[in-house]
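Dear H.,

Thanks for agreeing to be a second pair of eyes. The structure we're designing against is below in token form, covering all 431 positions.
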């Protein structure tokens, strides 16, 4: 029988957090709200923010990680308000480019389906959102959501909307809608595509003029954040004694609890995990997601373009979305999912060809950032109780899991999950 965790409710409990991205930093904020005072964050990079990465350039800040916060990002926007970080509406100039024609959301829908079919699909989509999207933990989600998204949409009669959403979801790096479980995509689609008076509308979005990362820099200033500090080994103590963390393979620290925000499929090297953990970690897969910053001529400016024909598993590594924010600067950013073995030459060739097919001329690649993205479980794993089993691991040997693989790959989802985990497992300190 393990001893009870005596550190719970003790303001001097030593709590470590692996990762100073949105999940780690918001967990730190919530722990502080619960009264815990000895929190240390270890971040392997030389900056905070994780996949929120604002790059200062001569032409201003370029977001090579997260870009947008939607009006539904209640936690993120509150944090920005609390820290005085400005955010401004960004009316995303979204267009779908099909056979060299630019379409809005409704134009594309109506070019593919008649008015009656479209109206019915929108109605069914709104009903599915109402029925299946709620704030309950993923471990209690309706099993219908374990189906691949396309199958789910088919069964619930909103395939035309799902097909439209497909290029948005691929552009945002969430895999292929024929495979990705509805459990994930239904968490975001309602924020992206709103139903107003029977019409589909794009949600309301914000960007951060000082950079998305500036929010996390502001938050981190309140905490003991160790940069360039990679947790390389975790030694748990199975009797609720302290855990040992080795940083950069040399420094040994002792803590009472550890919150891990790295994706579960990256944890195998850190510790000799029990078989139950390893089994779950093996069920998490992530995707290779690329951001290219490039110069081109003859492409439209001030646009956020999606290419529906590239929202398919084949051809591989095509540009799914690209954007330009300034009429007088021919600098573009594009997003693409790529297979693991695609070489830089293949990626460059695909990019140049995609630009050419859009009527543009590729000039130069300024930067390419690779991300290991969207850690998720497949439909089979979800049906086998992936999230339920994961919940049972929380707190074993003083170790807790937060971050995108516990929820969904957006800033808001990571923040919400981290805060709700803290509220559930870290009782307020007793005076
Ligand atoms: C190109 C791109 C565009 C995106 N666009 C949006 C968007 O518009 N809106 C949106 O909401 N989201 C967007 N996202 C997703 C969003 O950025 C992520 O979902 C969010 O950052 C996840 O936060 P996290 O803290 O869970 O993980 P991360 O941000 O990945 O943070 C984890 C941190 O842990 C650190 N770490 C890992 N292992 C160790 C270790 N062993 N020791 C120490 N530190 C470690 C990592 O270095 C990292 O800093 C985008 C992401 C990308 C890549």
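And this is the sequence the design step returned. I haven't edited it by hand at all.
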């Amino acid at each position: 029988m393990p001893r009870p965790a005596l550190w719970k409710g003790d303001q001097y409990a030593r709590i470590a957090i692996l990762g100073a991205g949105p999940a780690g930093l918001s967990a730190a904020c919530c722990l502080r709200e619960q009264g815990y005072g000895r929190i240390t964050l270890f971040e392997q990079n030389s900056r905070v923010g994780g996949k929120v990465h604002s790059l200062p350039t001569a032409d201003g800040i370029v977001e090579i990680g997260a870009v947008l916060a939607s009006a539904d990002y209640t936690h993120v926007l509150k944090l920005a308000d609390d820290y005085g970080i400005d955010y401004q509406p960004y009316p995303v100039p979204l267009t779908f480019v099909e056979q060299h024609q630019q379409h809005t959301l409704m134009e594309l829908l109506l070019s593919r389906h008649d008015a009656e079919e479209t109206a019915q699909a929108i109605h069914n989509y709104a009903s599915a959102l109402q029925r299946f999207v709620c704030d309950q933990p993923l471990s209690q989600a309706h099993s219908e959501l374990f189906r691949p998204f396309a199958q789910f949409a088919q069964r619930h009669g909103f395939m035309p909307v799902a097909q439209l959403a497909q290029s948005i979801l691929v552009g945002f790096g969430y895999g292929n809608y024929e495979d990705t479980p509805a459990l994930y995509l239904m968490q975001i689609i309602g924020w992206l595509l709103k139903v107003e008076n029977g019409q589909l509308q794009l949600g309301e979005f914000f960007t951060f003029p000082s950079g998305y990362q500036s929010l996390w820099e502001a938050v981190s200033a309140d905490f003991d954040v160790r940069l360039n500090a990679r947790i390389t080994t975790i030694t748990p103590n199975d009797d609720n004694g302290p855990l040992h963390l080795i940083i950069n393979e040399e420094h040994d620290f002792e803590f009472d609890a550890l919150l891990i925000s790295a994706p579960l499929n990256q944890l195998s090297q850190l510790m000799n995990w029990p078989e139950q953990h390893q089994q779950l970690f093996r069920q998490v897969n992530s995707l290779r997601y690329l951001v290219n910053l490039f110069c081109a001529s003859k492409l439209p400016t001030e646009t956020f373009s999606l290419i529906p024909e590239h929202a398919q598993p084949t051809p591989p590594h095509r540009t799914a979305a690209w954007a330009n924010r300034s009429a007088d600067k021919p600098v573009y950013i594009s997003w693409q999912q790529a297979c693991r073995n695609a070489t830089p030459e293949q990626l460059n060739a695909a990019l140049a060809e995609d630009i050419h097919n859009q009527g543009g001329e590729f000039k130069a690649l300024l930067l390419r950032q690779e991300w290991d993205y969207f850690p998720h479980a497949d439909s089979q794993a979800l049906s086998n109780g992936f999230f339920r089993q994961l919940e049972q691991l929380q707190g074993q040997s003083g170790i807790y899991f937060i971050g995108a693989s516990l929820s969904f790959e957006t800033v808001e989802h990571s923040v919400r999950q981290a805060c709700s985990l803290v509220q559930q497992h870290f009782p307020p300190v007793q005076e």
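Two observations from my side: The radius of gyration is 22 Å. Residues 88-207+286-375 form a domain with the Alpha-Beta Plaits fold (CATH 3.30.70.1990).

Warmly,
E.
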